[in-house]
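Data availability (excerpt). The following record was deposited with the supplementary files.
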Amino acid sequence: MTAGSSALHTEGPRCVCSPETGADDRLGVRARMGAEPSAVRTLRRRVRSWLEEIGADEEAAESILLVVDEAVTNAVEHACPGKKCDVELVVGSRACGRGLAVMVADTGEWQPPGDPGFRGRGLGMIRRIAERSAIETSYEGTTVRMCWAEPAVPGVH
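Predicted structure:
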């Protein structure tokens, strides 16, 4: 990686919206934990529980869970080779408008995609499932942002 930071844009406009959360868990999910394999399951359960609580459409919820799993898994498997780092997940209403936003950030190091072989198609999947998405990299880590302007998620404004 070169000095400074860069943004790897996915198809469509860059998602600059951030999730809006607060002390009330009904507003979203906010969690930070060690980037270890157990984080994938733990964070998926928290997001699933919140989506069920707000009455999210089952198909929309499964799509959101799929991209959350992918982004968290990437942080766990690729961002922190040989060192300890954290992964942060924030899910909630878009702070800049209607819809839903997801942010997954790690304190690791960006690893450029290699030969995908039988794996390595997660970034393409995120591009297809999220209405807008962006990947931002810096020396402090990588942040994946995904937005949906009008998902079938009641209770998300």
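Summary of structural features: The first strand starts at residue 6 and ends at 9.
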